[in-house]
Amino acid sequence: MTAPAATGRRERTKAANRAAIIEAARDVFGERGYEAAGVRDVIRAAGLAAGTFYNYFPDKPAVFRAVVEATGAEARRRVRAARTGAEGFAAFVEEGYRAYFGFIVEDPATFAFLRRNLAALRATGADAVLPLGIAELADDLRAVAPAGLDVDYCAHAMVAVGVELGARLMERDPPDVAGATDFATGLFLRGLRAQ
User: Fold this and answer.
1) pLDDT, tens digit (0-9, with 9 covering 90-100), for 70-81
2) Model-level pTM greater than 0.85?
3) Architecture of the domain spanning 2-194
């Protein structure tokens, strides 16, 4: 019976080490940017041995992608949960934006990582896993969108507005989640009515 307990403890340690490396990498890339940061910086910030890093990631691009994937998964989870609970198209738009902007404000380190590394995200192909969730948004839109709405264009436009307003949101002191949500929601709902 000690073997399963040891295996369970080992798996928890592995998960904790991997999470610590990803969190340290997010912070280091957010502070220095992808180009200026090195694996040694990540190792130092994680407080783990160099060998431990290489047990989980072969290089800097791999840990960078892991940060992007973890960030994207959490943002998509929160936004999709908010949209799923919304009743009607207007609430769908509003609750999705509120969840996304709330995520940005709640975790400035994650936003700093994304904002500082946009060029690296595009250059490494990691932009495909950004917390944008365009495909998920398009799928969800099909269930609530007004007839005749070009779901593909709408999903891309909604994400673009979210990303750009999110950048402005973080530059404001204090950040105004309600204002950004109201602006984005009004922009989409008024524009859609005009078509």
Assistant:
1) 988 898 899 999
2) no
3) Orthogonal Bundle (1.10)
